[in-house]
């Protein structure tokens, strides 16, 4: 009879995952025991406390940030009070009077003596066109003036000669008349002396007229020379006002047509801002009223200005202008000019900002929102 060991009687063992207990093999005739599923591990008391502490700190930080933001907003509202109904604000851009400096006639640009950003004074030479052809014509005209003056001198000498001949003929006529009265000259001889005197007199008048004609040619030659000199002067481009070279639009050697632009000169003493206001506001403004300008580049600094122009005809709101009421389609252009631009050299044309006008006699606020 074969022998059986415990190893032969043991069932096949299947490894189970870690954390789970293998069920015991039930005896024959007994019900299988119920297997209870494994539960996840429960956090310890230390981990739970740290999580609650972290959540509490996050809540406190969020509350602190909200309180700080509220305090900042409250301070900003306190330091920037709302604008009262006595004032009106409009957006704009600082501008300055521009002068276009261009060539009068077509030609080649010979010299450019200034650059962008240079300050220039009235009468300063900025550029010069090529005037060699005009200068040659001027020399020719001046030579014509000299020739005309010489011709006048010759004609005046001829007049003096003819006047001398006239005097001699007059003297011979007087003697002939005396001889005729005494009976020594015939009437024929007297008539000959009379005709000779008349001829000399006519010659004097002819020579005098020739002098006048030649003097007219002198005046014509002088006018021609003056015209050429004026053209040469016009080809020397000079600053008409004190200002700043904003743009240099041509370089030496370029050929320009008549009216070709060379510079854009701005008058820094005449800076202004165009404001587009509704009829209800523009109707309360007149030339000479006070205004204030605040530039984006100079916040908190109001520049004194005065209303110098109020348009008497409405227009549609320009596309680049933002109004407080977008439904306001028709507006009036109002020009606010800086009182003392030299006191604020930081203010430059092109800077955006806001213009404030006053419709009543209210006191200007210390700061503007």
UniProtKB/TrEMBL annotation:
Keyword Phosphoprotein: no
Key words of the record: Coiled coil, Membrane, Transmembrane, Transmembrane helix
Coiled coil location: 147-174, 204-231
Domain of life: Bacteria
Gene3D superfamilies per UniProt: 2.40.30.170, 2.40.50.100, 6.10.140.1990
Record-level GO cellular component terms: extrinsic component of membrane; macrolide transmembrane transporter complex; plasma membrane
GO function terms (MF aspect): transmembrane transporter activity
Keyword Membrane annotated: yes
Biological processes annotated in GO: xenobiotic detoxification by transmembrane export across the plasma membrane
Pfam families listed in its UniProt record: BSH_RND
Ranges of residues in domain Multidrug resistance protein MdtA-like barrel-sandwich hybrid: 98-266
Region called Disordered, residue ranges: 1-50
InterPro entries recorded: MacA_alpha-hairpin_sf, MdtA-like_BSH, RND_pump_MFP
Family: Belongs to the membrane fusion protein (MFP) (TC 8.A.1) family.
Name this polypeptide is given: HlyD family secretion protein
Organism, as annotated: Pseudomonas abietaniphila
Taxonomic placement: Bacteria, Pseudomonadati, Pseudomonadota, Gammaproteobacteria, Pseudomonadales
